[in-house]
Structures are given as C-alpha cells and as structure tokens.
Amino acid sequence: MKLMKFLAAVSTLCFLGGVAGATESSFVGKYTFNWLKSPGKQHCIKVDEKLASRLSSKEFRCKQNEGKTEAGETLPACRRIAGSVEYLIFDSRISCENERKAQDANSEE
C-alpha cells in the first residue's frame, strides 16, 4: 500500500513538473505574432532567446492553452500584463502565417 501511495505521489509530481516545464524558454525556435494588432500589418517572427526572455519576465503571463485559433484549436499564448500585446505561439511558420492570414481575412479593419 505504501508503494502505491509513493508511486501515485511520484507520478503526480512528474505530471506537474511536465506542465511547469513547458516554460517560455521552450518557445525558442517557434513562431509568433501579436494578434491584438491588425493581423494584415503583422509578420510571423521566430522566437529567439531575447523574446523568450521577455516573455518569461514579469511583464508577460503565458499559459499553455490560452490562445485559440480561427479553426478553434488551442495553443500557447503570452499576454502582456499591461495589455495591448498578446502573442500566439505556433510550432511552425506555416501555421503562424495561416492563422495570421485567417485573422486578417476575418478582421473588420
């Protein structure tokens, strides 16, 4: 019985560690754009160490399933606490560009 409790505790910690381990530094090499500004005027940029560092600062709050695409998929998003900036995080440039173009096509500007 003690072994079962121990294994349950270890698996819980591993799960929580995996969730917490998906930090902003794991965004390096992914692509993003600020979807709160006009999508037609934005460009998808590659997340580098400098941007990842900024996203991990107290200036931003990132959540794994916070963003939603036009197609209804969830993905990581980082919102600036002061507002006016929210980066959606994509695994590929193609996914980023497709979402940016879809938002541009559906925007009211």
Describe the overall structure:
- Strands 2-1-5-4-3 form a 5-stranded antiparallel sheet.
- It is built from 3 helices and 5 strands, in the order αββαβββα.
- The termini are far apart.
- The model is unreliable at 1-22 (pLDDT under 50).
- It has one domain (2-106).
- With 109 residues, the chain is α+β, with helices and mostly antiparallel strands.
Brief digest:
Helix content is 38%, strand content 25%. The chain is built from three helices and five strands, in the order αββαβββα. A five-stranded antiparallel β-sheet has the order 2-1-5-4-3.
List the helices and strands and how they pair.
Layout: H1 2-21, E1 31-34, E2 45-46, H2 49-55, E3 60-68, E4 74-80, E5 86-90, H3 93-106
Antiparallel strand pairs: 1-2, 1-5, 3-4, 4-5
